[in-house]
Amino acid sequence: MAGGGGAAPGSLAVHTPITGERLFDVAVTDAAGVAAAVDAAHEAFLRWRVVPAPVRGALVRRFGELVAEHANDVADLIGVEVGKIRSEALGEVREMIDICDLAVGLSRQLDGRTMPSERPGHRLMETWHPLGVVGVISAFNFPAAVWSWNLALAIVCGDAVVWKPAPGAVLTASACSALFARAAAELGAPVNLNVLVPASAEDTGVLLDSPRVPLVSATGSERMGTRVAPRVAARFGRAILELGGNNAAVVTASADLELATRGIVFAAAGTAGQRCTTMRRVIVHESIADELAARIATAYANLPIGDPFAGGTLVGPLINGAAYEAMARALAQAVADGGEILAGGQRRPSNASSYYAEPALVRMPAQTDIVRTETFAPILYLLTYRDFTDAVALHNDVPQGLSSCIFTTNQREAERFLAADGSDCGITNVNIGTSGAEIGGAFGGEKTTGGGREAGSDAWRAYMRRATNTINYSPDLPLAQGVTFA
C-alpha cells in the first residue's frame, strides 16, 4: 500500500478511514468524459426502452444473484472504504439484493389506470414509459445501496444510469459496476446501461446541465442540494433529493425505557452517526429524563469502538478528520449554549490519520441553532418536554424532515404522532428507532431533506414518464365539457 501524500494530477487518492492510510490513486473522469458517458448511456437507453419490462427485470434478477454470490467481497470493500462494521456492511449488501427482488416484481406491474370518460364510446387511461438517462450522485455512507436503489428501478423502468460515486467510495462503485456489467453481458443487454464517472464536483456539472439526463437522483448534504436542485430545475429537469436529516425520538412518560434505550443507541451510534437517518435528538418527558439519560450513558460507555473488521466492534471510524473536527466544533458550541456532555465525545487513540470518536450524549436547555443543524457525527442531543403538544412542536422545529419516531405505550400519543398535525417527516415510526428503513416502503423526507422518494411503494413512477390517453371507439366525435364546434 502507498503512503500519504496528494494524488497525481487527473487522479483521486483513495484512503481507508480504518487507518487513514492511502491505498492508491484512481483516474478521475473529466467534464468531457462525463459528457461522453451521458451520450453512451443515452444510446443504450434508446435500445433498452423498447425491451419488454419483464425482460428488463431478468437483468436485474441476474445482477441481484451476482451481488449475493459476491456479498462478502462487496462488504469487504464497504468496510475498507467507509469503515462500516461487518454486520452493517453485509446489511448494505442485503439492501442491494432486496431492491433487486422488489424491482423484478415491479417489472410485471408497471401499471397505469383506466378512468371513466365523460364521453360515450371513449376510454380514458394512462400509460407509463421509460424516461431516459438517470444521473445518480451517491454519498460515502452508503456507497453501494443508494446506487442500487436507483439502478434497479431505473433498469426495470427502461432507463440507463450514469453514476457519480462519492470520492471516497470509488472501489465499491467499481466493483458493483463490474457486477452489473457482467450481468448485462450474460443476458445480451446493451452496454453502457450503467456508466461510472468518478468525477469532481465541478465536472459533475455536465450531468446536472445535460438535457439528455431528464432525472438526477442526488444523495448528500443540504448544501449540495442547494447547488444541484436549481441547476437541474433551470433546464426543467427532475430531481430526487435525499439530503439532510435531523431525526428525533419523542419518548413519552409511558414508554418502555428498555426498548427505547436499545432503539435510541443503535439509531444514534450505529455507523458512527454517519447515516442520514441517524438519531440526532431525543425529546423526553421531564419525569423520566434523568433515568433515560443514565441508561443511554451506560450503554454508550459499553460500546466497543475500533477496527470495524474486528469481532464485536459496534462503532467504527469517522470517515476523515474533517468529520471529527465538525463533531468537536458542534460539541463546543453546544456547551457554549448551556449544554452538558453526559457521555462520550472524546477521540479514541489510534493514530494521527484515523478518527475514532466516542458517541456523545449532550443534555441541552433548549433547541439552539447547533441542535437544529445536522452534524454528520455521533452526537445525540437530549431535550425535555412537559406537554405532548409542545414535544411535537419541538420535534418539528428543525429545517430537516427525514425520519422520526415515538416511544410510547399510549395509543393516543402514537396515533397523534402519526396524524396530520404530528411528525412532519417522510418516515414516522412507533416504538422503533429512526434508522433501518425497509426496501418495501418509499424512502425520503420533507423540507430541506428534499422531498425525494426512492426504493419501494410507488417510487418507481419518478423514473418514468406518464401519458394520459383517450381512445375513441365510437363513430362520433363528442368534445369534452360539452363543447360544440360545428
Question: If you had to describe this structure to a student in words, what would you say it looks like?
Answer:
With 486 residues, the protein is an alpha/beta fold. Helix 2 (53-69) runs antiparallel to helix 4 (86-106). A 7-stranded mixed sheet has the order 12-15-16-11-10-18-19, with helices on both faces. It has helices at 31-48, 53-69, 71-82, 86-106, 145-156, 170-187, 205-209, 222-234, 257-269, 289-301, 321-336, 388-396, 411-418; strands at 11-15, 22-27, 114-115, 122-130, 133-137, 160-164, 194-196, 215-219, 238-242, 247-251, 279-285, 340-343, 347-348, 356-357, 360-363, 379-385, 400-401, 403-407, 427-430, 442-443, 446-447, 454-455, 464-472. Helices cover 36% and strands 21% of the residues. The radius of gyration is 24 Å and the shape is globular. The N and C termini lie far apart (82 Å).
Work out the number of β strands. Answer: 23
Q: Could you estimate the helical fraction of the residues in percent? A: 25-40%
Put simply, the count of helices is 13
Global geometry:
globular
Major sheet details:
7 strands, mixed
Indicate the proportion of strand residues: 15-25%
**N- to C-terminal distance:** 82 Å
- Walk across the major sheet and give the strand order: 12-15-16-11-10-18-19
What quaternary form is this? single chain
Radius of gyration: 24 Å
Mean pLDDT: 96
Low-confidence runs of at least 5 consecutive residues: 1-5
Structural class: alpha/beta
